[in-house]
Design brief:
globular, about 0% strand, about 70% helix, mainly alpha
Length: about 80
């Protein structure tokens, strides 16, 4: 597994839904790649920040501007 693949599997890894062989390959890469290990930590911190931000507020409504900005950013990402 390489760094680009790591980014594609982050959500499944954090959610513990990866197949065993992919999970093992993911963790093997993490032990060898400091950058991906740091990226995973930032990913988890971002999830936690979102949960904390919505803790006392109703975050069920996502502003349409935000949705469109995310979709635009994703459409500009290079695909493998």
């Amino acid at each position: 597994m390489n760094c680009r693949e790591i980014s594609q599997f982050l959500m499944e890894y954090v959610g513990d839904t990866l197949e065993r062989d992919v999970h093992d390959s993911f963790e093997s890469h993490l032990t060898a790649c400091h950058n991906c290990h740091a990226y995973l930590a930032q990913y988890r911190d971002t999830i936690l920040a979102g949960q904390l931000a919505c803790k006392d507020d109703d975050c069920s409504e996502v502003p349409e501007e935000l949705v469109q900005a995310v979709l635009t950013a994703l459409s500009k990402e290079p695909r493998s």
